[in-house]
Amino acid sequence: MQQLLMIEDDVRLAGMVADYLGQNGFDVAHAPDAQSGLARLQNPGIELVLLDLMLPDMDGLQVCQRIRALPGSSGQVPVLMLTAKGDPMDRIIGLEMGADDYLPKPFEPRELLARIKAILRRHNTGNTTGHDTTQKLLQFGSLEIDRDARRVSVKGQDCELTSYQYDLLVALAERAGRVLTRDQIMEAVRGRELEAFDRSIDVHMGRIRAAIEADPKAPQRILTVRGVGYVFARQQD
């Protein structure tokens, strides 16, 4: 069974989620606070974290930051943020902190399951777009995308991206030179339903630019086409 970690202070909710996901092939470990959750992540085996935004000992956004700062595979574990807050700004901040997805409470168990499966598909497969995968290494100037290792580097230095951001970057790189709308970009990354809140794409693009651009405020790799979407430059330094 795939093992998940739920960092959630609501014991009743955690139990209900664990029971439901257990019936669908997942083993859910529960941590009632941030410190115990971060300690559990020091050990291997966790494939995804369900992270509550409101925890008794630490803000969930801080926890997400700390997860991303962990060494090795622990720092790359996908994070699905759960929160009772409905403010879109909380969602944007969560994505900026490195969360892979965001689900407001209350949520339908089936939607939670679908999002978990979608995140894990993206994380566990080198390419989900359906395009030719014979070219294992994509290179644009000093930018390299290694499909086998799911590794992105610039001038030999690794770039920190979430699983979803990696897949977005690959989708753009495969279509270098083509102007893509936000919906086309989201559709290219299969396993994720289209969302009306397409500003989440802008947040992810900002994170990707911060990782791969020499100057994220004057990007040369991922260009914005006003009123349309984005284009990945064919020629790069």
Report on this structure:
By secondary structure, this protein is an alpha/beta fold. It has two domains: 2-124, Response regulator (Rossmann fold, 3-Layer(aba) Sandwich); 137-232, Winged helix-like DNA-binding domain superfamily/Winged helix DNA-binding domain (Arc Repressor Mutant, subunit A, Orthogonal Bundle). Helices cover 36% and strands 22% of the residues. The chain has helices at 11-22, 34-40, 60-68, 88-96, 109-124, 163-174, 182-188, 199-212, and strands spanning 2-7, 26-31, 46-52, 79-83, 101-104, 137-140, 143-146, 151-154, 157-158, 179-181, 222-225, 229-232. The strands form three sheets. The protein has a five-stranded parallel beta sheet with strand order 2-1-3-4-5, with helices on both faces. Strands 6-7-8-9 form a four-stranded antiparallel beta sheet, covered by helices on one side. The protein has a three-stranded antiparallel beta sheet with strand order 10-12-11. The longest helix has 16 residues, at 109-124. The chain starts with a strand and ends in a 5-residue tail after the last strand. The relative contact order is 0.11. Mean pLDDT is 85; it is low at 126-134 and 192-198.
